[in-house]
Write a structure and sequence with these properties.
The chain contains 13 helices and no strands. By secondary structure, it is mostly helical. The protein has one domain: Farnesyl Diphosphate Synthase, CATH 1.10.600. The protein is globular. The N and C termini lie far apart (44 Å).
């Protein structure tokens, strides 16, 4: 089986990115904004572990139901059925999924809001339904994945800021929450964009499994037009956000221009001539880097 294969199965690089985002929000943004927080380092580590185990379980169940398409789209990267048995994959999925939900209950109980545990149950159900049904449906899968990325970012203030909010600090706490909400919304839009690029990249394999993705239903030319529209929309939002920081935090504004605005313009420029699977794969990786660069703005805020 091999430890390396297991790490690749759970997308360890993506999980590290999630951990980094949560740590930045907790120990950089909240700390420098003098936010009132509730979670001690130990309980916060349980929250992080809950998020990454639930996410890892989602990757596994997705791969289990995506084998026919993956054999065409990325034959060299198929793990389940080759390097990891389906039985072992199902066991890993079950253990990680249950662990994530139970840890979510523990953290929810600790903050005195057991109802918040529904977040982890909802995430688990969405990941499962995405893998077996929504992934093949017209834009639904793209929206679900984007929402789950949004949720994984907003979960830190949800569990750390809200329990520490009272009438005395409500206004300042809300301002910080709104800032994280903007970061999460940026991640939502970039993820939606990237998922659509990946749909174009995987169109051949998706056709074989009867997928109803946007590129299959509407064609690649219309898909590229939709990509262009969302790219310009995100570009305008980031430019507006950057403009708001000129004269206040010039470094932040300049950083956004060079790490988000210019790469997005390059994405739009390359999108026009993108034609092959390799072209769209490169664009997908570029969007991932843009999202990471955008989130790292936390250091400057």
């Amino acid at each position: 089986m091999g430890f390396k294969n297991i790490l690749n199965l759970i997308r360890w690089k993506n999980l590290l990115m999630l951990i980094l985002i949560m740590l930045l929000i907790k120990y950089v943004l909240f700390l420098n904004c003098n936010a009132a927080t509730y979670l001690n380092p130990y309980i916060f580590s349980l929250l992080v572990l809950s998020v990454i185990t639930t996410t890892a379980a989602g990757y596994i169940i997705n791969d289990m139901h995506d084998i026919p398409a993956d054999k065409i789209n990325k034959p060299g990267k198929v793990l389940i059925g080759k390097k990891i048995s389906k039985e072992d994959a199902l066991l890993f999925y079950s253990v990680l999924n249950i662990t994530g939900i139970l840890l979510g209950f523990v953290v929810s109980w600790y903050i005195g809001r057991i109802s918040f545990s529904v977040v982890f149950i909802l995430a688990s159900l969405l990941l499962y339904k995405y893998a077996i049904y929504f992934k093949k449906k017209y834009l639904y899968g793209n929206i679900i994945v984007s929402f789950l990325i949004f949720l994984s970012i907003i979960i830190t203030p949800l569990f750390d800021l809200i329990p520490a909010t009272n009438s005395a600090n409500q206004e300042s706490q809300w301002e910080i929450f709104i800032l994280v909400l903007k970061i999460a919304s940026f991640a939502f839009l970039l993820t939606f964009l990237r998922e659509l690029v990946k749909d174009i990249e995987d169109v051949e394999g998706d056709k074989r499994i009867g997928s109803e993705s946007f590129p299959i239903e509407k064609g690649i030319p219309k898909s590229k037009k939709l990509l262009l529209f969302f790219s310009l929309f995100i570009l305008l939002i980031v430019l507006s956000f950057s403009y708001g920081y000129f004269g206040i935090r010039n470094i932040t504004a300049i950083y956004l221009v060079f790490t988000v605005v210019l790469p997005l313009l390059y994405f739009i420029f390359k999108l026009k001539d993108a034609d092959t699977k390799e072209d769209f794969h490169k664009l997908s990786n570029l969007l991932k880097l843009i999202m990471l660069a955008g989130i790292l703005t936390v250091f400057l805020l």
